[in-house]
Design brief:
It is found in: Cytoplasm, Cytosol. It comes from Salmo trutta. It holds the Pfam family CARD. This is NACHT, LRR and PYD domains-containing protein 1b allele 3-like. There is one protein chain. By secondary structure, this protein is an alpha+beta fold. It folds into three domains: 186 residues, Chondroitinase Ac, Chain A, domain 3, CATH 2.60.220; 128 residues, Immunoglobulin-like, CATH 2.60.40; 85 residues, Death Domain, Fas. 22% of the residues lie in helices and 34% in strands. The strands form six sheets. Strands 5, 6, 9, 10, 11, 13, 14 and 17 form an eight-stranded antiparallel sheet that branches. A seven-stranded mixed sheet has the order 3-4-7-8-12-16-15, with no helix packed on it. The chain is flat. The protein starts with 8 loop residues before the first strand and ends in a 9-residue tail after the last helix.
Length: 439
């Protein structure tokens, strides 16, 4: 998501006023991990053509995650306030402590029903359960661009999946990226849009992954309407391949549903498929797969619309993809060991990958790593609590690795082994190789 300038905010906790600017450091409860104050959302120029207010300040929080029968579950516990999940984009406002959990559901079982009703999905389908308390408001993320057609706000409804069918609920307010409901009662719910025509502009997502095999670079560029459940599906699929994601710019405009696009990479030997139709899919999104011989040149990418207009351009420099895919090239196949890895003591290895660790490690892995480091007495309870309340993911990662580095070789070896268990993909990419200390 794009990011707006952060604002100064004052909170009163235990009768103490806290001034917050750029991030919340270590003042909040450990339950509120990875919090920052910002407004987010993919930005397109057409959004700026109309005034769609979305000015509330939301505390961004990372969810606690678990996997139940292959389904990723998200859980939040929050006191009174306004919050936004960094993974799903879900926002909520509560007047007292609440615990909510949720997961993404597939729209596929309801696709024919939506067609019969002349509606289409307008965002993710979320199955939300309240374990404690009630919400005053919930704001469901949507991908419809309102700037080109503000009247679409009147065509948006909320679909409730109930035991014996479905029902529709009116939306209290539609902002640029969210549909607001007051005093919600939960079942699997998601925003839907009445299809008066296919002339609907939506926000898009582009995700680029690169893999090096011998002297060949394989790129996969995913193109789909912005949807956090689809982003999660892509990340899970690519993680199993050991690919490296490259952060790229977004188009400065929205795209029309059901339009098609062509990708051009001058230095590629093949690109498949020739065109991708821009539609919301129930499965993992479609992608352009391009084969590029490693000629030492920068990779230029250009996306063309139906009428052959350039709608997006990007360049990945040679130095960038050679550096970031270095470890991937050492992996000859899924499940096989890397041909080479870092040498030296565990402390030396950990110190040498510090920058990449901070850049790549995810928030959920950091939280689990903290618990496991405590379990193996690498850190104590006080040290764990001091790190858990850190707002920024990168700052939390720096504190963890620096804390372990100060404790010597044995602690570094334990952390490396634990990282291999918790995120084997990152462990392989970093090419670290611990010895001598079982976990």
């Amino acid at each position: 998501m794009g990011q707006f300038p952060r604002h100064r905010l004052s909170l009163v906790l235990d009768l103490k006023e806290l001034s917050i600017e750029t991030s919340i450091e270590r003042a909040l409860s450990p339950a509120l991990d990875s919090i920052c104050v910002q407004e987010t959302g993919p930005i397109c120029i057409t959004d700026m053509l109309v005034l769609v207010q979305d000015s509330t300040h939301w505390l961004q929080i990372e969810p606690l995650t678990s996997t139940v029968q292959g389904v990723t579950m998200f859980r939040h516990r929050t006191p009174k306030g306004s919050y936004e999940c960094t993974v799903s984009g879900l926002r909520w406002l509560c007047e007292r402590d609440v615990i909510l959990k949720y997961h993404f559901r597939n729209w596929e079982p309801y696709s024919q029903l939506l067609k019969d009703m002349q509606y289409t999905q307008g965002g993710p389908l979320l199955d939300i359960t309240m374990e404690l308390g009630e919400l005053e408001e919930v704001h469901l993320p949507h991908f419809v661009c309102l700037g080109t057609n503000p009247s679409l706000r009147n065509e948006m409804k909320i679909l409730h999946v109930e035991e014996h069918g479905v029902s529709l609920e009116e939306v209290h307010e539609v902002t640029r990226f969210h549909a607001k409901i007051l005093h919600p009662k939960f079942s699997p719910i998601g925003p839907i849009l009445r299809l008066l025509s296919w002339d609907v502009d939506v926000h898009c997502e582009l995700m680029l992954y690169l893999t090096v095999k011998r002297e060949t670079l394989i790129s996969r560029l995913y193109l789909f309407p912005w949807n956090p459940s689809q982003i999660q599906a892509v990340e899970q699929q690519e993680k199993s391949h050991g690919s490296s994601r490259f952060l790229i710019s977004r188009p400065e405009q929205s795209f029309k549903l059901n339009s098609s696009f062509r990708l051009n990479i001058p230095c590629s030997t093949s690109i498949n498929p020739p065109r991708i139709h821009f539609i919301q899919r129930d499965t993992t999104p479609s992608f352009f797969k391009a084969i590029v011989k490693m000629t030492g040149v920068d990779i230029e990418m250009e996306l063309f619309s139906d009428d052959e207009r350039t709608v997006w351009k990007e360049m990945v420099s040679h130095d960038e993809y050679v550096t970031d895919t270095r470890s991937t090239s050492a992996v000859s196949g899924a499940g096989r060991p890397a041909e080479s890895s870092l040498t030296g003591s565990p402390e030396q290895q950990l110190r040498s990958v510090r920058t990449e660790f901070v850049k790549r490690v995810s928030g959920p892995v950091l939280n689990e790593l903290l618990d496991r480091l405590l379990q193996h007495t690498v850190i104590n309870q006080e040290e764990m609590e001091s790190v858990k309340v850190i707002a920024e993911r990168t700052e939390k990662a720096r504190d963890i690795i620096d804390m372990v580095l100060r404790k010597g070789t044995e602690s570094c070896s334990r952390m490396i082994n634990l990282l291999g268990e918790l995120d084997h993909c990152l462990y392989t990419e970093l090419q670290i190789n611990s010895v001598g200390v079982p976990t």
